[in-house]
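Operator note (shift B, R.M.): manual run for LysR family transcriptional regulator requested after the automated queue skipped it. Running by hand, logging everything below so the morning shift can see what happened. Input copied straight from the record, untouched. If output looks odd, do not overwrite the archive copy; leave it for review.
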Amino acid sequence: LLDRTTRKVSLTSVGRDFLPKARRLLDDFDDSILNIRELAERQIGRVTLACIPTAAFYFLPSVIRLYNERYPKIRIRLLDLSANEGLEAVLRGEADFGINMMSGQHPDIEFVPLVNEPFVLACRRDHELAERSAVTWSELSDYRLIGVGRLSGNRMLLDHALSG
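Run finished. Output pasted below as returned.
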């Protein structure tokens, strides 16, 4: 990109070709920073949240109500997606962040636990396990269980727990 001597620096032909592109990139970067500052100062804009249906139904309405009271000019857009679809939406930049049941390891996503909810066993009152205060996974191996689809976040959590 540059030809250098002890007395001067000049652009090569490739450098001259690249210079307008570099200036455009820097201008776009500066504009983006200014827009972010403006949004932060005026607190306007839109936040897109990918979430599983359970979160959308149970606790997001109260959280969104409080958020809207504090930031009335920021619109919230919800993407009601499965666990895997939510992660993909975050990776593709279609969602600013996601609320999911799965924690995981992906180099481009930071996972932060929000709550720790236990799984519970649901059975009829007359079932032999109904009176127990706790049941281990190995104790369940003798029983037929009703499961959920393979791509469900719950199913993935259960499969992971049972494999360990």
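Quick read of the result: The chain has a mean pLDDT of 81. The first strand starts at residue 2 and ends at 4.
Leaving this for review. - R.M.
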